[in-house]
Amino acid sequence: MSTTKFQGFAVTSSDPAKWSTVEKIEFEPTSLKEKFVEVKIKCCGVCGSDCHTLHGSEMWGGAPLLPAIVGHEIVGEIVDVGKSVTDLKIGDLVGVGAQIGCCFECEMCLNDNETYCPHLIDTYNATYPDGSRTFGGYSSHIRAHEFFVFKIPENLDYEKMAPMLCAGITTYSPLVRNGAGGPEKLRIGIVGLGGLGFYATMFAKALDNEVWVFSRTDKKKEDALKIGADHFVATEKPGWNEDLKYKFDLIICCANSSKNFDIGSYLSTLKVHKKFISVGLPEEPFTLASMNLVPNGSLFGASHLGSRKEMLEMLQLASEKQLEGWVEKVPISKEGVQFVLEGADAGRPRYRYVLTDYDKEFS
């Protein structure tokens, strides 16, 4: 039988100073619709979006809906299915990412671009058309449309796989959409080696490209090379870009801060009409002048998550090449959730926190 009351760790106060303080609550989930499955959660990765949402950033929609249960790097086991579910069954090990709904009818949805649907529904801090709320993965269970639920490869550690459901697909999609998985080997630059930069580096290399990591200092050089980078550049060194002008086929920017960010130097390293794609979503805007783009006709853009098609491809690639994240596992509890939220907000994990031991916390 389907569970009618779920448990989760929620922020319940509108006081900005208590953004990371959670309480264990019971909540009523959305109904188990005919194409929905119910997942008993085993673990959940901790994303920077969780922190931005709870801080009430205007760029992220302002003050969160309360009670707010975040988390969208979810792995668990299906325990119930709607009457029209066809691709999944009870007992399947599955993942749920940052998107949980769309209209299924618009041009975007019909062309593997559902992540750009005007009626996109986020996995948490959103509302279904019937008025029910979405609650994230810092909880005992989640219900989701089967289209947004993905089988997890059983040959890998599922706790290390969880961050791929957001951080992984967020970087994999712009890579393959810009030729990284094609017949030609590309020279790709990855800006910033944090939670996103880790996966951008790993997937760029797994797709058989020449990978360069750009970071302010040499502090993460050894990690970058272990993850898969062929080269590392510390951008605090004056003139770092001079020998790299017109050299890159693609740059994926994973930086989450635009403070003192010299975007012109990065753009100068691109070949003619090649792209700089931002996935890090800094709170403050980039300072970009038209003349930064003119010398090589470079293009500045962004990317949002990835399609179901890309998610399945990414998970298959991970399975075939034994790709796993570097994670710090933290048992879920009131104290554990506060620890990972504040740690992620400060950029402390190497390279992702994952909340674990759900069976011990939730009855």
CATH class of the largest domain: Alpha Beta
Low-confidence runs: none
Count of individual helical segments: 10
CATH topology of the largest domain: Quinone Oxidoreductase, Chain A, domain 1
The average pLDDT score comes to 95
What count of domains describes the coordinates? Answer: 2
Structural class, from secondary structure content?
A: alpha/beta
In total, how many beta strands? 17
The N- and C-terminal alpha carbons lie at a distance of 15 Å
Question: Can you give a write-up of this model?
Answer:
- With 363 residues, the chain is of the alpha/beta class.
- It is 22% helix and 25% strand.
- The protein folds into two domains: 6-166 and 326-362, Medium-chain alcohol dehydrogenases, catalytic domain (Quinone Oxidoreductase, Chain A, domain 1); 169-302, NAD(P)-binding Rossmann-like Domain (Rossmann fold, 3-Layer(aba) Sandwich).
- The protein has helices at residues 48-55, 158-161, 167-177, 195-206, 221-227, 263-267, 290-293, 308-321, 334-345, 358-361; strands spanning 6-10, 23-27, 36-45, 74-81, 93-96, 99-101, 121-122, 141-145, 149-151, 187-191, 210-215, 231-234, 248-253, 270-278, 299-302, 327-331, 352-356.
- The strands form four sheets. Strands 3, 4, 5, 8, 9, 16 and 17 form a seven-stranded mixed β-sheet that branches.
- Strand 10, helix 4 and strand 11 form a beta-alpha-beta unit.
- The model has no long low-confidence stretch (mean pLDDT 95).
- Residues 36-154 form the Alcohol dehydrogenase-like N-terminal domain.
- Pfam families: ADH_N, ADH_zinc_N.
